[in-house]
Amino acid sequence: MNEQNLKIEKLAPNCGGEVLDIDLAHVSDEKTITALKAALAEHGVLFFRQQDITPAQQKELCRRFGELHLHPAWPRLVEGHPEVMEIYADKDTTRIAGEEWHSDVSCDLKPPLGTMLYLIETPPEGGDTLFANTCAAFEALSEPMRNLLDGLTAVHDGEPVYRQGYGEKAVERISYPRAEHPVVRTHPVNGRKGLFVNRTFTTKIVELTQRESDALLAMLFTHIEHPLFQCRFRWQSDVVAFWDNRVVQHLALWDYFPHRRRGHRVTIEGEVPF
Ligand code: SIN
User: Fold this and answer.
1) C-alpha to C-alpha distance for 242 and 195, rounded to whole angstroms
2) What's the number of domains the chain is made of?
3) Domain that holds residue 68
4) Whose CA is nearest to atom 2 of ligand 1?
5) Atom of ligand 1 nearest to the CA of 251
6) Which terminal residue of the chain, N or C, has fewer Cβ atoms less than 10 Å from its own Cβ?
7) CA-CA-CA-CA torsion sign (130, 161, 199, 65)
8) Among the listed ranges 17-26, 61-70, 71-80, which one has the minimum average pLDDT value?
9) Given pLDDT bands bounded at 50, 70 and 90, which one contains residue 164?
10) What pLDDT score does 1 carry?
11) Is the residue at 273 inside a domain?
12) Residues with CB under 6 A from ligand 1
């Protein structure tokens, strides 16, 4: 089975596809996994409605794509499943996950391949997630700008993000994840090039002066966040989103306070970007 054999409806020209007629709790054959890998690279983020998947089944499915990732700072884990983060917000929440544009944990030496979020409870309105395709963003740049960026390296620093904690006591640690990655990375499945810098973790382009780096990063963040490269997903309960951290960034809108939003998130380990 290749990507064409899945039934997929695009959400927007450059980002997002809804996969129809698939029961994620019972995907077992390798052909479907291969097709999902191709579809993930192609659409950047896939959505699956009307799912019913336990934490154990979600982990089993994610393991078909790679080893499971343990988050360096997230305080709410599903009991008995340290690889399953509980995404949770209600009237007592002071900080949610992903309120600024980011690629998950890009400060890791091997940033995650992808993330699967199963949303169980949604607020009466709001709580959408926005996704941006960084390959489409790279391809839309002028050739001189693409040539300048390709070959540069950027610092991704976890300390400013994780030191403040997530609404509980700040996480004091001896060290925080920090890595240097190419500004332009190549997707290992389809060879497409995309921008790999984000507002949350990327602090400096190594080869440039601080002033040059600040100006260039500001331009790139604004460029990636242009609506042309995006889709915006309106959740319902029992929907799974599966995004490819190598080629999309996302932002979770917290416009539903004091209502509750809850789900289970599993993150899949990736490789050293190239
Ligand atoms: C996240 O960044 O993992 C949160 C995404 C969401 O809650 O929609």
Assistant:
1) 20
2) 1
3) 7-268
4) 98
5) 2
6) C
7) negative
8) 71-80
9) confident
10) 46
11) no
12) 87, 97-98, 117, 129, 250, 252, 265
